[in-house]
Write a structure and sequence with these properties.
By secondary structure, the protein is mainly alpha-helical. 60% of the residues lie in helices and 8% in strands. The protein has a 3-stranded antiparallel β-sheet. Strands 4-5-6 form a 3-stranded antiparallel β-sheet. The radius of gyration is 24 Å and the shape is globular.
Length: 320
């Protein structure tokens, strides 16, 4: 492997965890709480209480160590720059759940293998490190597959929310004889289309690529991650699934569903028309949300529908 290949490998989630600040505390807590107890997902309140007790025990020996609260550490470990834990809402859950990411699972398994093998001596440890690097290279596509899966799930959620709002819009009059419906075809923007194509290329060999494909896939992943690091504005834009759509609104007759008007970001409608449209969509969003049982989806849904309004009221631009 060349210098740049190794440098990129060291930025993969598994090795980022091993190199993280306070790695002994972090890895010890994750192993004790998830692996030793055979837990897949833990509610936020329970995990925060467990971490608080864990930190208090460590501070008895080192009073000045670990100055943050348990809540702050959990927020850091779920952040974009680290991603050691995944925070999500389960079905009918009243509070968030936490589970290990793929990178954390691999790091803990690797450490367990070191302990089981009882390695001694610098040479054995170096050999183990490079073996681990080869395994990370071999299965790097698994992390990218999970990344793509999360984006596709976000895309499906947006479509389901649009369907829910459209159901409410059918019975909310826009005029005496019309109602409106949100449309969301796939965007024609080149940057989004190219990103999705590159993401697909990273996974062309599936989760177990052949040896011949492995380096090509790794090169594709390396180049994509490099672009993520170089341009955060572009990264936020292409990885936000809301930007994968071109939102618009059709005004249809109640009688025969015939289109009489169309609103889009580039349409020259008056501010009064757009304000009326925005309030109609907002009313339908509130109506749709009342039918959703999970409180957890409300913040995301509200943001999504305000995003619809702003995309219609003015063209989307990227800030530098």
């Amino acid at each position: 492997m060349e210098y740049h290949d190794i440098n990129l490998l060291l930025k993969l989630p598994t090795l980022q965890l091993l190199r993280a600040q306070n790695a002994p505390m972090l890895l010890g807590f994750l192993h004790q709480t998830f692996k030793r107890e055979h837990k897949v997902a833990i509610p936020e309140g329970q995990l925060r209480a467990t971490l608080t007790a864990f930190l208090d025990e460590l501070r008895e020996a080192e009073p000045l160590a670990y100055p943050k609260s348990a809540a702050d550490y959990l927020a850091d470990w779920c952040g974009d720059g680290q991603g050691f834990l995944r925070r999500y809402y389960g079905n009918d859950a009243n509070e968030p759940l936490f589970e290990l990411t793929t990178g954390s699972e691999k790091a803990l398994l690797w450490l367990e293998s070191l302990q089981e093998s009882n390695f001694v001596g610098t040479e054995s440890r170096l050999e183990s490190i490079f073996t681990g690097l080869d395994e990370i290279l071999k299965y790097a596509s698994a992390d990218m597959a999970m990344f793509q899966s999360n984006l596709l799930e976000h895309e499906k959620v947006i479509r389901r929310r649009i369907e829910a709002v459209n159901e409410a819009l059918v019975v909310i009059p826009f005029s005496d004889t019309t109602h409106v419906q949100i449309t969301a075809p796939a965007t024609r923007a080149d940057d989004i289309k190219q990103f999705r194509s590159r993401l697909k290329e990273c996974l062309r060999g599936g989760l177990q690529p052949s040896p011949d494909d492995r380096m090509h896939i790794f090169k594709s992943i390396r180049e994509l991650i490099s672009d993520f690091e170089k341009d955060q504005v572009w990264t936020r834009h292409v990885t936000d699934a809301r930007n994968w759509f071109e939102f618009g609104v059709r005004e249809l007759t109640d009688a025969d569903k015939r289109e009489v008007n169309y609103f889009s970001a580039s349409s020259g409608k008056s501010s009064g028309q757009k304000a009326k449209l925005a309030f109609t969509i907002l009313a339908s969003a509130i109506s749709a949300l009342r039918s959703l049982r999970s409180v957890a989806v409300i913040p995301f849904a509200c943001l999504a529908w305000f995003a619809v309004f702003f995309s219609i009221a003015r063209p989307r631009t990227l800030s530098a």
